[in-house]
Amino acid sequence: MFIGTYLVYATVMVLAHPRFIYPFGPDSFDDPTFTQHVIEGSDVHVAIAEGDEETAVLFFMGNGGALAYFTFSLKAHQDAGRTIAALEYPGGGGIPGSASEQSLKADALTAFDWLADRHDGPIAVHGYSMGTGLALHVAARRDVAAVLLDAPYVRMCELMTRASWLPACYMPFVQKWDNAKDVPQISAPVLIQHGSEDQLIPQEHGARLAALMEGEGGGVLFQPVAGASHNNLAGQAGYRARIEAFLTRADTPPE
What we know:
Protein name: Dienelactone hydrolase domain-containing protein
Pfam families: DLH
CATH architecture: 3-Layer(aba) Sandwich
Order of helices and strands: HEEEHEHEHEHEHEH
Helix content: 25-40%
InterPro entries: AB_hydrolase_fold, Dienelactn_hydro
GO biological process, one term: proteolysis
CATH superfamily: Alpha/Beta hydrolase fold, catalytic domain
Domain Dienelactone hydrolase: 102-231
Distance between the termini: 68 Å
């Protein structure tokens, strides 16, 4: 009886799990300092604010799914004078369509190539929560100047396992979001910021990801942020200063 019930539960969760991964918000992003683009030949939506600094940033938000919820991160780059482009996810923020791991990763590469075509300087990628998987996916496949990760996970399926009591990382048809797979291909310097009070993605995920990168010989700086939770990390004192210091070092050629 118990085994049958568990198998039914597992089947239902496999079918339903995208709803939990992509609980996108409806609020549209209407910041007048950004312009909205649909990349030609695709359904990929990007918002961009132009800046004067040499380095541009491509931002990938978390699964809140609406850029309106990530203004602290966007403003950190805008106020520093950088061009900041952000991928908008289908199904959230008034963008039509629906999302999957495969489609979002393809969209992320399309967005990077679009930004690279219009920006002559270096491009850094910046991911928050679920978006860290997109930042790492791009960094493993494109020439990026730096990688900024806020509250990253090693494998999202581990978080699913904790929440569901199912072996999500080993189940077919589950979208795994395995950041560890991209680590060996990362050559750009990486900054990880992760709150000590993060209950959604515990800080140990960021520490483990940093350790994996160090094991591959990559340049990674892990910055635990005392008192920060998952949703208020970007609003903490020192958040911007750590980004600026890191990008300054990344832009400075070795002697």
